[in-house]
Predict the 3D structure of the following.
Amino acid sequence: MEVLFQMFQKKIKTSKLLALLALMGTQTFANDLFQGQSGEIISIPAAAQEKSDVLTFKTSAGTKQLVSLPFVKQDLVITRHHVKVKVNWVNFGESRITIADESKVTLSKEDQARANKEAIEIKSALSNSSTEITPSFDFVAPVPGIVTSPFGKQRFVNGMPRSAHLALDLRGSIGTPIVAPLKGKVVLIGDYFYTGLTLILDHGHGLFSSYAHMSGIKVKLGDLVEQSNEIGLVGATGRVTGPHLHWTVYFDGNKVNPESLIQDGYLSSIL
Ligand SMILES: [Zn+2]
C-alpha cells in the first residue's frame, strides 16, 4: 500500500494502477480518475474558473459540467478539460455495405475536391456555438423509426475498411417528417457529396445535431426552431443504400452516441 501511495503522490495514474487497485478490491485512489464509455457524455465537477460558454448544473454533489468522450478503438486515458478520464473501448461491431456506384467509393479528382470543400464548410458551421440557447438535453427522437445502424460500427464499404459510423441511422421512408430533437438554430443547409441534403442545428453551448440524406428541408438558414418542429423529410440523397435518416450529434468537440441521448431521464442519469 505504501508503494501505491507513493505512486499516487507522483501522480502516476495509469490504467495499470487502476487495474491493480481493482485487483486489490480497493478504489482508494481511483476517485480522481473519471471514466466513461467511448462516444458518451459524462459529468465532472465544474472547473474552478468557469468559462462563460461552459454550461454548468447544480447538483446535490456540487456544480458539474458535461464532457464528451471521443470514440476510441482501445481503452485510453486522456485529459479532457481539467480532468483525466479513462475512456473505455466498446465493441460496437462492424457492418459491411455495398455501394454499387463505384464513383461514389473511389472518388474522381473533382468529387474529392468537392468533398474536401464540403468538409471544411461543415467544420466551420460547428466551430461557433450559441450561448443564447441553453440545451435541456431532454431529447426527442427526430423520427419514430427503429435503429438500422447504431453508433460506432466499423464500416467496410465494398470490402474496404472506412472510418467508423459515428452517427445513428434511423429507418424512415422517403417523405417521413424529421423533427428537431431539441430547440436549435439552423446553422447549415447544403447539398453534399456524401450526406446529400443536409441540415445542422446548433442547440447551444457546443451541442449540435446534423441530419443527412434528406429529400426536403422545411426551414431556412438562421431559423430558430422549437423542439418537435418539423425541419425536413427523410430521403435517400447523397451516398446511401436506401432511404433513412443519418443523425449525428456533436458535443464539446466530439461526435457522441445519439442513441443514449433519447433515453428517458438522460440528463439526470449522467449528472
Ligand atoms: Zn448513417
Observations:
- The longest strand covers residues 184-192.
- The chain has two domains: 2-88, 94-270.
- The longest helix spans residues 109-125.
- Residues 17 and 23 are 10 Å apart (CA to CA).
